[in-house]
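step: validate -> pass
step: tokenize input -> pass
step: predict -> running
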Amino acid sequence: MLTKNYTNLALAILRISISGMMLVHGIPKIERLFSSPIEFGDPIGVGPTTSLILALIGEVVAPIFIIIGYKTKLAAIPATITMLVAAFIVHLEDDFYTKEKALLYLVGFLVLFLTGPGKYSLDKH
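step: predict -> pass
step: emit ->
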């Protein structure tokens, strides 16, 4: 019978895995910053450049902070918002299978926002 509480280990696994996988989506977008003109969607009407920068914050900067467990709750906000936009604006008309990945990331980042990073982090909460 398992009597040990593995909550902090579970939070570390969630933090590192979900953010590491998100980096796979975000890092390739960095190259787009250096293309002219910048070609990126504008799902919330702020322009392609601003949309790309916001996506990079949610898919690269925030996940790096979450992986190391620094300001995790704060960093989870842009990551969560980015996935809300992906699931409910960019993929609104798509079938569930297409938006499923964004929804999975959304749930993971939302859980980290609600729980914090756990003790195996720089925040040590």
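step: describe -> The two ends are 27 Å apart (CA to CA).
step: cleanup -> pass
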